[in-house]
């Protein structure tokens, strides 16, 4: 008997039709088992030797991880209700991802964020992988502003809402502006910080997109400083266009704060340009060193070696932390 199929092992040429169909069944089962064994093997080989398959597997794992963690954490977050404190859960859930992907995180200038005051963080936005960088440095009581579509992503939406993430409808300017103005009032009252991607969408080009003004209006309305944060380009390890996803190093540079005290809405365009320029300069500088690092046998970033000081970087020596094992704050 094979898997419950009563059948002779060796077919006899003179067997009846029911016996030969039994033999056929057995062959089907053997073939099925063979296929079941071959499929994972083929997948393994594809994963190892086909960059595109490798890319899709890694992206799928990323999404599955986020969905699984959101599903797991939502009930715990719900116990507390909608609260910025729930961001700690999301942060803890995303922190281990860098280990799975072999992504090293280097953080410079973390000391800038070690202040009791409220502020707005603005950063460039290359891919969903930014979440891995965000959780390295996101301070306590800080919520991102996200596109409304995330709210409808099932448990990911619930987890985000429960963590106090603020949603804007990018296609309804008036509504988005209202949400930001309201955020300016509540961030003072409820004492939280805000993280905004002023490019407004993901961008993997060699330069940053023009900045939207919401983040800067927010900082001016709330009269809080802005901390520009720059993620180094992912080119050497991630590209959605080229379907590339390998291990690599991501450097996160926190630039000194930009004050907004006394500024009004008429100053917003200039403030936006100043911050964007500082970030673009830092990004350009990091792009060069990112390529140098790639070719170096023992990569050491110029800033870690104490060389170079680009635009927007200010007082104090840049803090250089290499972080692959734990959190940086
Ligand atoms: C484990 C579980 C994990 C869960 C996963 C969690 C996921 C977490 C996800 C986190 C990551 C998620 C990442 C993401 O989802 S990124 C995508 C969503 N984020 C954003 O879009 C943020 C950036 N966008 C903006 O700031 C835009 O400005 C908005 C959306 C507000 C409007 O866009 P729009 O394109 O329409 O505007 P514009 O900037 O060209 O400006 C147009 C005009 O409006 C004026 N104006 C603008 N704002 C204000 C204001 N507040 N008060 C007064 N005026 C204001 C402005 O001065 C200008 O006028 P003028 O100056 O030309 O005269
Ligand atoms: C019941 C519905 C179930 C739907 C399930 C949806 C599954 C969603 C899968 C994985 C969730 C991963 C979400 C991570 C969000 C990362 C944030 C991000 O990078 O958003 C992109 C946004 O900044 C800019 O968007 P665009 O570049 O303008 O586009």
List the helices and strands and how they pair.
Blueprint lengths: L16 H33 L1 H30 L6 H8 L2 H5 L1 E6 L11 E4 L6 H8 L4 E6 L6 H9 L3 E3 L4 H18 L2 E4 L17 H9 L3 E6 L6 E2 L4 E2 L2 E7 L13 H28 L24 E4 L6
Parallel strand pairs: 1-9, 2-5, 2-6, 3-4, 3-5
Antiparallel strand pairs: 1-10, 6-9, 7-8
Bound molecules: tetradecanoyl-COA and [(2R)-2-oxidanyl-3-phosphonooxy-propyl] (Z)-octadec-9-enoate.
The site of tetradecanoyl-COA (MYA) has 35 residues, from α2, α3, β3, α6 and α7.
Work out the helix count: 9
**CATH architecture, please?**
3-Layer(aba) Sandwich
The share of residues in helices is 40-55%
Name the structural class.
alpha/beta
| Global morphology | elongated
Determine and state the CATH class: Alpha Beta
H/E series, N to C?
Answer: HHHHEEHEHEHEHEEEEHE
The count of DSSP E runs of length 2 or more, i.e. the number of strands, is: 10
Tell me what the structure shows:
By secondary structure, the chain is an alpha/beta fold. The protein has one domain (50-297): Glycerol-3-phosphate (1)-acyltransferase, CATH 3.40.1130. It is built from nine helices and ten strands. Helix 6 links the parallel strand 3 and strand 4 (166-168). Helix 2 (51-80) runs antiparallel to helix 3 and helix 3 (87-94) packs across helix 5. The N and C termini lie far apart (62 Å). Bound molecules: tetradecanoyl-COA (MYA) and [(2R)-2-oxidanyl-3-phosphonooxy-propyl] (Z)-octadec-9-enoate. [(2R)-2-oxidanyl-3-phosphonooxy-propyl] (Z)-octadec-9-enoate (UBL) is lined by residues 63, 66-67, 125, 128, 131, 147, 150, 153-154, 156, 201-202.
């Amino acid at each position: 008997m094979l898997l419950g199929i009563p059948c002779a092992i060796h077919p006899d040429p003179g067997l009846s039709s029911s016996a030969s169909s039994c033999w056929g069944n057995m062959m089907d089962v053997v073939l099925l088992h063979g296929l079941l064994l071959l499929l994972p093997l083929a997948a393994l080989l594809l994963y190892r030797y086909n960059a595109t398959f490798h890319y899709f597997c890694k992206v799928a794992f990323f999404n599955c991880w986020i969905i699984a963690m959101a599903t797991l954490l939502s009930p715990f977050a719900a116990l507390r209700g909608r609260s910025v404190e729930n961001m700690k859960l999301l942060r803890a859930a995303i922190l281990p991802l860098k280990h799975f992907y072999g992504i090293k995180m280097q953080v410079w200038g973390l000391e800038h964020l070690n202040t009791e005051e409220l502020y707005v963080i603005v950063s460039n936005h290359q891919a969903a992988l930014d979440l891995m960088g965000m959780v390295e440095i996101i301070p306590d009581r800080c919520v991102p502003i996200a596109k409304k579509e995330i709210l409808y992503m099932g448990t990911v939406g619930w987890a985000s809402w429960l963590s106090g993430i603020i949603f804007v409808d990018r296609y309804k300017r008036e509504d988005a502006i209202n949400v930001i103005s309201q955020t300016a009032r509540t961030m003072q009252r409820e004492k939280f910080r805000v993280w905004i991607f002023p490019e407004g969408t993901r961008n993997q080009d060699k330069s940053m997109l023009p900045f939207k003004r919401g983040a800067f209006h927010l900082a001016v309305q709330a009269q809080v400083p802005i901390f520009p944060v720059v993620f180094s380009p992912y080119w050497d390890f991630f590209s959605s266009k080229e379907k590339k996803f390998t291990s690599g190093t991501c450097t996160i540079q926190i630039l000194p704060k930009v004050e907004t005290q006394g500024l009004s809405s008429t100053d917003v365009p200039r403030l936006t340009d100043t911050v964007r320029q500082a970030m673009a300069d830092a990004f350009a500088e990091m792009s060069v060193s990112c390529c140098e690092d790639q070719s170096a046998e023992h990569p050491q970033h110029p800033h870690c070696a104490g060389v170079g000081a680009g635009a927007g970087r200010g007082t104090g020596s840049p803090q250089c932390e290499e972080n692959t094992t734990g959190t940086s704050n």
